[in-house]
Each structure stands twice: as structure tokens, then as C-alpha cells.
Sequence to fold (461 residues):
Amino acid sequence: MTPLPHNKSGSFSEGLFQRLLSIYPKAHRDEFGPSMNQLFRDQCRDAWRTDHNWGLIKLWGRVLPDLVRTSMIEHLSAFKEKSMNERISHLLRSSSTPKKAFVAAFGGIFVVVLAASVLITFLLPESYGSVARIRIEPVKGRPGIEPEKGKPADPYHVMSQIELLQSDVILGKVVEELNLKEEWGLKYSAGVPLKASEAVVMLRSRVGFYPIRNTQLVEIRSFSDNPREAARVANAIAETYKMHSMQFSVAPVFKSLAYPADIVVFQSNQARITFPVEIVDSAVPTTEPVRPRKALNICVGAMIGILLGLVCGGGIGGIAFLLGRNARKNPA
Amino acid sequence: MAKTRIDPEELLPLTPAVFHVMLALADGERHGYAIMQEVAEHTDGTIKMGPGTLYGTIKRLLEAKLIEESEERPDSNLDDERRRYYRLSGLGERVLKAEARRYEEMVKLARGKRLIGKLTSELYPGALR
Fold:
């Protein structure tokens, strides 16, 4: 037999192969390990003769998948050979079993929970948010007319206006104005237009109204899978509410006028009429989705995985420890 | 106690790896490397067994008693005495013959269906006499 020419690649390959044999079950390694080593040495010698380093690389390309595949087969075969009782009793008697059980349970649960959170995060539909801001004038005295000095502002005015904002009066008009019955019917109801009430309910679930503390400002937040639609809806609500408020503020003034003489009086009073709602910021489409919050979801998933893993791993490791102690005390 | 004789047909069909290893041992005993070379030669290099596949197959063949390890060791001047030699057992020979016959039947069937060409001896029965 020609020995393998002394070279670094050959020695490295042989050493690596010898170490890799540890992935086989011990019984198989003891029985066939030396023969497998010898066969690999022969193969290395042939590969070196043919193509030098390239030959060795090609050999590893064949041998490595073969090692992985056959080691799994041998493990499976070794597992099948032992009876269930033998396996359990062997496992329990080993002093390292509780630690292994803890690590396996902790690792398994952590990986499963983390993988589930990543999967859910990336499967969830993206939702874009848009915000419009309005300013609501506090009402003192007669609505629409400049607040009378000395009269206190209505402390519940903003809350009342928020209720009005999410009422059918405003949202119903927005649904009509944006043609949401047809648009959402096409999108969510297989082309069948939604009823007005259904569209309003759907719209209500996609918007939120939030007063900003210590100011007269209210945020109108709208969410949609389409950033343009989110901005369009928020702006439409702000506009509709503004028009509605104007209508109810100015109408009493006009009603009180008697044509034509009072017009002159009205014109002179125009400066005193105040519009109770002002759009401070219009909503613009955003490029970044607000939901799902990917980093947050994955971090929360990892935290839950760690907690669950610790609890379950601790429990399983503890049970394995107790069972092992009993098994060692009563070997029969 | 009377030995129960195993019917070779029960062990068929053999996997390609098992068949090739047994075929390599049909001529006589060989060690692992020689079996691997023989298989590569028989198959024009299309089947190159790795150490894992070869010794996994040998292990299963030993367990099934289709091959046995030879006790005799070659002269250490001629070969590495650490090498382990294997040979077909009586059962192994019968199983290999049964498998070869099975292949023969299949080849006949394929010829009948004109999937492969006929042998010269079949076309001209007297030609090889």
C-alpha cells in the first residue's frame, strides 16, 4: 500500500475525519471506526494522486453528506434496537440527565416560541397609520359667536366633540364622501357593496380620537393596509367635522338676520364670528407601517420564550432529577 | 434444535448499495477499500461509496448474516494486517443469486416491451456456439 504523501492537506483531512467520526453512535464507532478511518485514508491517497488539493476537496464534497446521512441512520437504528424500558432506565440513571433535560426543554421551548413570534410577525398584514390634528375652540356662551367675556368654558366640550366625531353623523358622511361602501365592498366583501351601517362600523374600528392633554388639540388617527387610504380617511373626518361644526355655528347667526337691513349689521359683526374647529395638521401617507412592530414583537417573543423555557425546563429538569434519584436508590 | 432455513426471496429486493457490495464479494473475500473500488469499477464510477455508506451496509449485511468476516489475515508483507476482510455467507450467496434472477426477469420483461435491445445471442442463437 502506498502511504499518503506527507502533506498538510492530507493530514488535516485525516484528522478532521477522525474527529467527525464522533457523530456516530459509540457502538458503531467502536466496531467500524478504525476501518472507516483506514478507508478514508485510502480515498485521500487516491484523491491526492489524481488532483492534489482539488481532489481532496471533491472527496470531502462526497464524504461529508455521506457522514451526516449515515450517522443519522445509525443513531436511528441504535435507538430502535433498545427497548423503551432500557432507554428510560439508562436515561434516568445518568447524573447528567436533569441538566440535559433542562437544556433540551429550555432550548426547545425558546426556539419554538421565538420562531412562532417571528413567523406571526412576518405573516401579519402590515397596517399604516396617519394622523390629522384639529383644534377645537372652547365654547363660552352662544356657539359660533365670539366667547363672551367672564363666562367659563365648558370643561366637557372636547370630550363631547370626540363623541360627536365617532358618531354616525360624522362617520356616515365620511363613508358617503369617500364611497367606502363600494370601495370596501370590493376589497373585503367579494365585490358586494357594504351597507352604510357596516361601512360605518368598519370605519369606526379603524380610527381613534385622542385629546392632547392641556391643549385644545385632538388627534384623529386612521389605520389601513394602504397608507394613502389611511391619510385620506383621517383628512376626510377632519374636514367633515369642521364643515359640520361650521354649519351649526354659523346657521343660527344667519337665521337671526332679517333681509336686507340686517345684512349690513351682519357684515359689521363678521369679525366677531369665530369658527370652532381648525385643522392644524393634515394627515399625510407614511412609508413605514405602524403594525406589526417587528422588533418589539420578536423581543416580546424572545422574552416569553425565555420565561416559558425557564419554567418548563426547570420543571422537567426537576422531575428528571427526582426520578433519577429514585432509580439510583432502587436499581431493580 | 433444528435450524430454520431462511427463504432468500423473503429478503428481496435488496437496496442498490447492498446489491453492489454483495456483488463485489461474489468473486471472493475483500476488504472495505477493495469493495469500494470494485463497486466504482462495476458502475463506471457512477457509484462512489463513502465510508459511512459502505460500513453501514456492511454492518447490516453482517447482522442479517448475508456476509461474514473472514478469520484469515493476509500476509502482512502483502497487505495491512489491520484490514478486515469480508466474504459472502451461504445465505448471502443464495440471496444474491435470487436477486440476480429477479433482475434477469425484469430485464426480460423490459426487452419484451422493447424498452431495451435484444442480446446478440437471442438474435442469432447459433452465433456464440
Remarks:
- Chain A touches chain B through 23 residues (CB under 8 Å).
- Residues 141-145 of chain A have pLDDT under 50 and may be disordered.
- DSSP finds eleven helices and four strands in chain A.
